[in-house]
Amino acid sequence: MAMPILIAGMGFLFSERAGVVNIGAEGIMLFGALAGVVGALYLNSAWLGLLAAMLAGLLVAAIFALLTVSLHADQIVVGAGINILAAGLTTTVNRIVFGMNATPPAIPSFHVLPFPDALARISWLGEILSTIFSQNILVYLALFIAPLSQYFLFHTEIGLKIRAVGEYPKACDTVGIDVVRVRYGTILFSGLLGGAAGAYLSLGVLSFFMESMTAGRGFIALAAVVFGKYTPYGVLGAALLFGAGLSLESRLQALGTGIPYQFILMAPYILTILTLAGFVGRNKGPAASGIPYIKE
Amino acid sequence: MANKKQMDNQALTQKQTTPPLLEMRHISKYFAGVRANHNINLQICQGEVHALLGENGAGKSTLMNILYGLYPPTAGKIYWKGQAVDIQSPKDAIALGIGMVHQHFMLIPALSVVENVVLGMNCGRQGRLNLNEAAKKIEALAKAYNMSLDPWAKVWQLSVGQQQRLEILKALYKGADLLILDEPTAVLTPQETEELFNMIRRLTEANHTVIFISHKLNEIMAICDRVSILRLGEITSTIHVCDTCQQTLARLMMGGEELSAIEKKPASLHETVLECTKLCCRNTRGLMALKDLSLSLAGGEILGIAGVDGNGQSELADAICGLLTPESGKVRINGVDMAGKSARAFLEQGVGHIPEDRHRRGVVLSMNIRENFILMNYYKAPMSHKHLLDWKLIDRLTDEAMASYQVKAPDRDALMQNLSGGNQQKIVLARELSKAPSLLIAMHPSRGLDFGATAYVHNRIIEARDRGCAVLLISTEIEEILALSDRVAVLYEGEVVGQMPAAEVKTDTLGLMMAGALRGAG
Amino acid sequence: MASVLLAFVVSGVIIHLCGLDVISAAKNMIEGSLGSKNAIAESLLKMGPLIFTGLAYALAARCGLVNIGAEGQLYIGGLTAALVGIYIPNLPAPLHQLFAVLAGFVGGGLWGFLSGWLKVRFGSSEVITTIMLNYVAQYLINYLVSGPLEEPPGTFPQSRPIVESSQLTRFLPGTRLHIGIFIALLCLVLFYFFLWKTTHGYETRVVGANPEAASYAGMKPSSSVLLCMFLAGGCAGLAGATDILGIQWRLMPNFSNGAGFDGIAVALLGHNTPLGIFFAAALFGIVRSGANLMQMLSKVPVSIVNILQALVVLFVAASNIVFLIARRRAIARAARRDSAPEEPNAPSEIP
Known about the structure:
The complex is a heterotrimer of chains A (about 300), B (about 525) and C (about 350).
Chain A: H1 2-17, H2 25-43, H3 46-70, H4 75-98, H5 117-120, H6 123-132, H7 137-142, H8 145-155, H9 157-167, H10 169-174, H11 179-206, H12 217-227, H13 232-255, H14 261-276
Helix pairs in contact in A: 1-8, 1-9, 1-11, 1-12, 1-13, 2-3, 2-4, 2-11, 2-12, 3-4, 3-11, 8-9, 8-13, 9-11, 12-13, 12-14, 13-14
Chain B: H1 2-15, E1 22-31, E2 34-44, E3 49-53, H2 60-67, E4 75-80, E5 83-85, H3 90-96, E6 98-101, H4 113-118, H5 131-144, H6 160-173, E7 178-182, H7 190-205, E8 209-214, H8 217-223, E9 226-231, E10 234-240, H9 246-254, E11 272-282, E12 288-298, E13 302-306, H10 313-320, E14 328-333, E15 336-337, H11 343-348, E16 351-354, H12 358-362, H13 369-373, E17 384-385, E18 388-389, H14 391-404, H15 421-434, E19 439-443, H16 451-466, E20 470-474, H17 478-484, E21 487-492, E22 495-501, H18 507-514
Parallel strand pairs in B: 3-8, 3-9, 6-7, 7-8, 13-20, 13-21, 16-19, 19-20
Antiparallel strand pairs in B: 1-2, 1-4, 4-5, 9-10, 11-12, 11-14, 14-15, 17-18, 21-22
Chain C: H1 2-17, H2 22-34, H3 37-62, H4 70-87, H5 93-122, H6 126-145, H7 180-197, H8 199-209, H9 211-216, H10 221-248, H11 259-269, H12 274-298, H13 304-338
């Protein structure tokens, strides 16, 4: 359950770092989820489905970038528009491709890799770990993403540029950095990962597409970025925490512990609000967050 | 000292036989039809400190932004070491060896010193950041210029002076031969200014060239070799500093010609309206902007506050209309101590304010004329009763005001953003004067206006005075101060350095006082 | 207007690409929304919540805020209205309805106020907090209807029905049309009255347009923010309240189905003006109620309405900019004509 949040969150971490608030995350994931299923069905391969999902995410992100970066349209409004569009378009396409009431056809999907037995046997730790990671192959790929992002963001020139653009785009302009290109780049990258995260849900977890199946995970991914204080390991931690909550929810329901599962579902959002209000340590997002850069 | 300057001078004439380091020829720049630079010719020689002197809005920053590739010029060419160059972006400028330290630092507070320096550069291999190596180079460079700077400190932890040093270091690191310093001392304490000057001296010793933008005459005398004076977007003259004195510079900067005197009756003074005693205020950067400032102003009198921009004028105006809480000292209006009162309480005491930045504070551009007209008194009778606005009355009053202030607009529903600057200012004037203020703060009331509108605004201010209003006129235009004021006070670094009746003012003395070179009675 | 036309055209193309008949779809849509007394009633019924949530976005926007939280405010408004409807018996019907509706307003208002307070007190971006509070509200309702408020014996996750006296009066026999639409129209009028006739509304608009000028005029921007978030939340709360009291008659999980987000499209298309919101809500109301018949007869999925709505949002967002750029160019051109470069002493207003 943590993986889609981690993958998408890591993508949106990059665009957030460059000063772009994309609340269309939810929509991008939804598009990715559908494109993954459709791609896998027609191309008869889960991997090609994943590719289709990433391309779909890229395309939607490109529309977002065009409107917000080039045309200086409001990021929030465009993001909200993309979410509505995703809800409408994925439902429509889903009904056309899979019919109204037909049972979903079998599609190639990612299979669960057995969790290493040795690990699973170290008692409760293994138990929890295997719960958090509904272990399929994407999990193991996704786990590399945090150190990779950390390296990229803090140890490469492009990473430095991205962080700088999100703080003070005008200053970047004066040292010859193309602000528009940096923002386009990060938005497109977040689209790729957002699409992949959607495919993870439809190809890795469920093996079919369901209307509004992302169920707020795009927003949780954004929440993970804020809660993770805009750092890759922070996002990883937030994603694991939120993901653990999501997995625990179903267990709690079954066990009847008396803790209403809805409160666990609420937790990511409340934690994020508390973070924003500064109760969970100092929290400052990129200074130029959400502000279109208009060159004089 | 004089000897050294003469030697510099000789050296300069020698250097001029080879092509100058930089030459800007016939540069013009228009913003939406408004001219900022017009037919500017400028030569900068290797190794000199060249001052650009001019009032705010004279076009200094625009010219330098063109040189740095931030704006394309409307017309004209730039030559670098005798070669025509096309500078399309800061990247081109940096590649040539031009570095710029902006007035507002282009540093990213959340990043470290070394990250700020290498930003946008290739360092290390294959896109990998090699900050350790860069940090070593920065330390070496800092040592060479006798600076101390921790490469790993975050920029937000640095003092303003350190940030400026970092900006200079950043430019040097990128290989700048020519450094443009845009009003570098505006944000510095006197000690920091002295350190900066030492650094500039070390830079020129190492054969670097500096363009020094300023309107502080004493600094130009102290550090520069030559000075070019900009006025209304044109370079009016370029002279060697050793051949001139502050008085001449002051006259050149202000244009010299006197405005035709405005007819006005002798002032008849009423009771004291405004009294500031030992006022101390900090600006947004936390520096002391007003130091023990005391002044008093009576009804029926215009007190002109002369001074170069940035010497505490904005803070003075803000303190008197309740937008800035003083550190210490008192503001009394009509005998009432205003300590701890809200901005609205100041308004209620009869303070009218023509703000310095019309678009940011004076008007709401996206609202129409009548909505702007009631901005200051919408909340009380007769404009509203029991929280309800009386639009019928407001419409009538707006129409009357538009007629009597000769506002040229289709009707009262016209949006403010569609009016010319002059008409916008007339509406501000109508709004502030229609409430018959006992104190009017007029800050740069004619800034950006043409001659007709300026004369109109001036006459209205004098009319207000004749009705018994106390007027605090804050302006950097010396002609405006002299034409309107009954009494003149000079503000320098947050202090009143001289006060005198307007009739006794000599332009030269005023110029020296504004430059901080002379203190008068007061 | 062009945005709407373009959105319809693109939606038509999508329908066509799906191999469906565009003309029959359009016919059925109109038939289904305006073709009979009941159809018109259903359109009006859909229009009410759109007006409320449109107002929730527009009111905040007028104060310079972005309220993405209409959805959550709607849920809480529905909850508080339902509580009054369920637990306060023995009231005369008009009074009970009034109390329940007011409770909905206050509930939604407080939910909105929370975001406003977080912004004023801690500087938290209202964009993120309103989004987060949407989900908090949704899960809160889920919990309540399957916990403390659950109707015995607990077969379905839903509350007991509200008392009959609190059900909003249905005034058109044979239809579900209830007085909620009048409340919506009243709110539109009040919205206009508040913003353009009262001093607080005037303050709101000044704060939204130029906060610095507002402080300079002695206004307190933070009070305007709090007031506006309360009123905006209240409007969204009314959307939930009228839905529960007029149609659902009991609290159920996920009863809103995204109506809160529709308000963004309505307000954007209506340029945050009362008349604009009225027409935009009417348009989307008609489209939404006609979509059911269209799906039944022309096989065009209802979700096409979402696509249409999203396209309107995106086109309007993009077109404002096109318009702005065109105007800036026109001003520049005019200025160039006015002051020929050679003329000495041209007005020197540096932008």
